[in-house]
Specification:
By secondary structure, the protein is α/β, with parallel strands linked by helices. The chain has one domain: 3-Layer(aba) Sandwich (Rossmann fold). The chain contains nine helices and five strands. Strands 2-1-3-4-5 form a five-stranded parallel β-sheet, with helices on both faces. Strand 4, helix 7 and strand 5 form a beta-alpha-beta unit.
Length: 240
């Protein structure tokens, strides 16, 4: 769907008030892990058509292989997650052309958890929104699904509060834009707000069970754009 709209750049907004937050300033990583991962993503970019692209940090990069195969292997999907990335690193990747020539039907963005130990909620939200604006500029025909940052750590803790407020701010700031925001964080929590070791063994990264919950939670949004999974099609055919 073609986007028409006016997207203010970070540089245009912040000079009056001072320097922009670090979360919105593209920043290169020079570590070997980052460089190697960029090479892998470049190879995937050049390998063929991408209809579904996941963009983010380690939670994206570490998709459980069996869950990925079940939900995305037959959907021309690509994984552009990088361990340790913050919002500013994703911005740098985008501005360096890591998605050059791509026009996925759907981009799924999950980013910001690595900013939580340094940045206040408002800055985290600003970084996420800056990425959305850059994606909209580079991929005007792509639909964008923005996911709320997942909960982490025991409850209560300051990071849970920071994530909750950041998600609220992102949702509010994305209202004028033609994107979809979904917060599925509650899907990973028990009745008292606790995180089970079976879902997040380190209270941050997902287990196979956690990724199955993740995939199932966003499936309605993906199916609405890409159509049902192949397994669903076979099921529907056999039921007729």
């Amino acid at each position: 769907m073609k986007r028409f709209g006016f997207f203010l750049t970070v540089a245009a907004v912040f000079p009056v008030f001072g320097a922009p937050p670090a979360s919105t300033v593209p920043s290169e990583r020079t570590d070997s892990v980052f460089q190697h991962r960029r090479e892998e993503m470049a190879a995937r970019r050049d390998a063929g058509k991408i209809d579904l692209l996941f963009l983010g940090d380690s939670i994206t990069q570490r998709w459980d292989e069996s869950v990925w195969q079940e939900y995305y292997a037959k959907r021309q999907a690509a994984n552009f997650g990088v361990d340790g990335d913050r919002t500013e690193h994703v911005l740098w990747r985008l501005q360096q052309g890591d998605m050059k020539g791509l026009s996925p039907r759907l981009i799924v963005l999950l980013i910001g958890v690595n900013n939580c130990r340094r940045d206040p909620s408002a800055d985290i939200a600003a970084g996420v929104v800056a990425i959305v604006d850059e994606l909209a500029r580079q991929c005007p025909d792509s639909q964008i699904l923005v996911l709320g940052i997942f909960p982490m750590g025991p409850v209560p803790n300051v990071y849970r509060d920071r994530v909750s407020l950041a998600n609220k701010l992102v949702n509010e700031q994305l209202v004028p834009r033609e994107v979809t925001f979904v917060d599925i964080g509650h899907e990973f929590l028990g009745p008292a707000g606790e995180i089970s070791d079976e879902v997040m063994p380190d209270s941050l990264h997902l287990s196979r069970k956690g990724y199955a919950i993740y995939a199932e939670a966003i499936e309605p949004h993906i199916s609405a754009i890409l159509g049902p999974r192949r397994t669903d099609i076979r099921r529907e055919t056999s039921a007729q």
